[in-house]
Amino acid sequence: MFFTLPTLFTWARIVAIPLIVGVFYLELEPGLQNLCATVLFVVVALTDWLDGYLARKLNQTSSFGAFLDPVADKFLVCASLLILLELGRVNAMVALVIVGREIAISALREWMAQIGASRSVAVHMVGKLKTTVQMVAIPFLLFHGKLFGLIDTQRVGTWLIWAAVVLTIWSMAYYLQKALPEIRAKAR
Known about the structure:
Elements: H1 5-22, H2 30-57, H3 63-86, H4 92-114, H5 125-143, E1 146-147, E2 151-152, H6 153-187
Antiparallel strand pairs: 1-2
């Protein structure tokens, strides 16, 4: 199930990352760069919902798709955070906590799978909420202006990304707590 429709949408998320980042290297007016990157990010982020929906609807779920989907999300979020860091729109601590958590939890899940305990670190609601808040915060930060002449997207995005940091730490603590019995058992 390497090239099903849902998996192609997931691949599209990965392929789109250089486009989102590349917008900021084009010789465009900064407001247009921000708008293009925001629209690209939102369209690409929506494919995260779409690929899962299609996989279930078309009965095309696969272990490869289950692996690739979170990888695509992590690439998209991490690349976006790095460009936002370079643009001075997020704090380095934000990027470090979010990227560090992704690396740590990915490594934990891989290790838990190797010891046959992957169920103890299965995706939890707090992890899904963290991803949702990140996916909402990032377009606000990419836009970096007044939305509809009213909403200061930098301020809203900053509040949301810090909320995502709190959820990131909470979800990491949750997964580590769930894995702790297995870690203790294997450390003996």
